[in-house]
Write a structure and sequence with these properties.
Helix content of chain A is 0%, strand content 51%. Chain A has no helices and 13 strands. In chain B, strands 2, 4, 5, 6, 9, 10 and 11 form a seven-stranded mixed sheet that branches. A four-stranded antiparallel sheet of chain B has the order 1-3-8-7, with no helix packed on it. Classes of the chains: A mainly beta (113), B mainly beta (115). At the A-B interface, strand 7 and strand 12 of A face loops of B.
Chain lengths: 113, 115
């Protein structure tokens, strides 16, 4: 299985400031035949299912605010919230869908400082 | 927005079988990949498996010996069966659509394994 490791486990950021979450995969999730990274990011608020934010490592899902962005390639990825809003308090997960079984990171909890 | 709905018992005894159903609105089950994903209380997400509308399946190897996914297109439903459950199977179970990255999720149903 590909192990996904996120850092940090939690972070507290002031409103309007940048939040950065890292995700590292134990193997590359880059498909060289199509140059796509099989990596997604989700946001989960308490009592709700996860919400897809980003796929192919950097493609924003329809309706997701542009303050959310994804970057990286191969084994190292980043989710950035450029200007943290109160509505962004949540747990964020990365997921690889390069190989079965699809696997998720352990989650990063984002709070307001 | 497509809304999936899980249903099934909230309490299952150890060693027994967990059975859940997901209802898909509007006949759209005849396309797409249909997944089950679970989340133990306070923990992360675990993909259980998917079933394609053709009936082909793919399971997480860690659960493969105990899991069966099935489809009932006449009812627009797909189902999860997990045998020989233990307390470690206590979780919120989500049904979800798509292969790879998952855009459509049900609200989830909590299943507790306890005598």
């Amino acid at each position: 299985d590909i192990v996904m490791t996120q850092s940090p486990d939690s972070l507290a950021v002031s409103l309007g400031e940048r939040a950065t979450i890292n995700c590292k995969s134990s193997q590359s999730v880059l498909n060289r035949s199509n140059n796509k990274n099989y990596l997604a990011w989700y946001q989960q608020k308490p009592g709700q299912p996860p919400k897809l934010l980003i796929y192919w490592a950097s493609t924003r899902e329809s309706g997701v605010p542009d303050r959310f962005s994804g970057s990286g390639s191969g084994t190292d990825f980043t989710l950035t919230i450029s200007s943290l809003q109160a509505a962004d308090v949540a747990v964020y997960y990365c997921q690889q869908f390069y190989t079965i079984p699809w696997t998720f990171g352990q989650g990063t909890k984002v709070e307001i400082k | 927005q497509v809304q999936l709905q899980e249903s099934g018992p909230g309490l299952v005894k150890p060693s027994e079988t967990l059975s859940l159903t997901c209802t898909v609105p509007g006949g759209s089950i005849s396309s797409y990949y249909w997944n089950w994903i679970r989340q133990p209380p306070g923990k992360g997400l675990e993909w259980i498996g998917y079933i394609y509308y053709t009936g082909s399946t793919n399971y997480n190897p860690s659960l493969k010996s105990r899991v069966t996914l099935s489809l009932d297109t006449s009812k627009n439903q797909f189902s999860l069966t997990l045998t020989s459950v233990t307390a470690a199977d206590t979780a919120v179970y989500y049904c979800a659509r798509d292969q790879g990255f998952v855009a459509i999720w049900g609200q989830g149903t909590m299943v507790t394994v306890s005598s």
